[in-house]
Amino acid sequence: MASMYPPSLTALIEEFEKMPGIGHKSAVRLAFYVMGITDEKARRLADAVLNAKSSIRLCESCQNLTDSSPCGICSDPRRDRGVICVVESPKDLVAMEKTREYKGLYHVLHGAISPMDGVSPEDIKVKELMSRLGPEVEEVIMATNPTVEGEATAMYIARLIKPMGIKITRIAHGIPVGGDIEFADEMTLARAMEGRREI
Amino acid sequence: MASMYPPSLTALIEEFEKMPGIGHKSAVRLAFYVMGITDEKARRLADAVLNAKSSIRLCESCQNLTDSSPCGICSDPRRDRGVICVVESPKDLVAMEKTREYKGLYHVLHGAISPMDGVSPEDIKVKELMSRLGPEVEEVIMATNPTVEGEATAMYIARLIKPMGIKITRIAHGIPVGGDIEFADEMTLARAMEGRREI
Q1: pTM score > 0.80 for this model?
Q2: pLDDT per residue over B118-162, tens digit each?
Q3: Peptide bond connecting B90 to the previous residue in cis, omega within 30 degrees of 0
Q4: CA distance B75 to chain A (A)
Q5: Contacts of B76 in chain A (CB under 8 A)
C-alpha cells in the first residue's frame, strides 16, 4: 500500500526506516519531528550528517574514528606508548576510556574474525596492528569481546605476536561487578573460577 | 564529561539525541549507522531532511501536510464534498484513511484546545475550518481524540457550527474491537453502554 503522506515526507520516513532499531512508527515520529523544527535546525541536522561523513576518517595509527590523523589519543604525549589495547570497535574504545584507568594506546580492529560470516583476518585491521609493533611496545592487551569471534581473534593475534617477544595479555572475564552468581551463565562462572586471585 | 568521539561525530550524535524517543545509546547507534553507509546514501538522507522541510506545506483547504496545495484528497473529484471529518493531526487522518471506509473530506486542526497547555482556539486551525463551511457541507464529523482536550475541542467547534444548521456528529467511543470488557476502563465502558445500539 502506498504511503498516505506526501511524497517528500514519505521519502524522509523511508530514509529513517533504514536506520537500525527504527521501525515504521518511529520513522513517522522522527519525520514529524523534522517537520516541526525550524528550517535552521533541519539544516543543522542535514549538515551534521554530511559533515560527519566528510570529516571522519580512521586514525593512521590506531584506526579509531577521528577528525584529525593521528588522533587525539595517539598524539597525546601523556599516553604510555609501551602498551596497546586491542578492541573490536570504536564503541569499545569509548567504554574503556570511560573507566579512566587505562593510560596506554589503542588499536581498533573494526570487527572480529568470523569464518561463518566470511570475515577473515584481512578484513579487519590486523595488518595495521602488526606494522605498529616497534621496539617501544612492551605489551598488547587483547580486549576483544568474550564471544566465539572475539576469542578467536584474540588467539589469532596472540599467535602472530608471541614470536616477537612482546607480552600479550587478555582482559579478565568473570562475574560482572554487582552481578549475581546465581544467575551467571556457566561459561562466565567457569571463567571467574579459572581467573581467581588470592585475596 | 566531554564526548570521547571526534567533534563531528559528537555533533551528529547530539543532533540525533534531540529527536523524540532517541536516547544517548540510540543516537550513538544511529551516528555509527551514518558512518557506515556510503557517501551517496548519507547525501540521500540529508537531502530527504531538507526536501521534506522545503516542499511540505499545509493544504490551503484541509490544512493537512502536502507537497501540492490543494492536497490530493481535497482535489480528488471522487470524494464527497458534503462531509468534513475533523481530526487533530495528520497521523489521525492517515489512520482514518487506512480504514478505506470514509469517502468525505478532512480538516486537520494541528492540535486540540488545552487551556492548561496554553492552547486556545486561535492556536489551532478552527478559523480555517469555519471558512470552509459553505452551503455544500451537510455534516461535520468530530474525530478528535477521546481525551479531555479532544472532547473540549469537539464541544467548542460543535457550538460554533450548530447555529449554521449543519449536522455535527462525534465518532463513537467504546470497547475496541478485540478488546476485553474485563480490562476496559470505566470511562470507556460507560461510553460503550451509552452508545449501545439495537442488534
Answers
A1: no
A2: 999 999 999 999 999 999 999 999 999 888 999 999 999 999 999
A3: no
A4: 14
A5: none
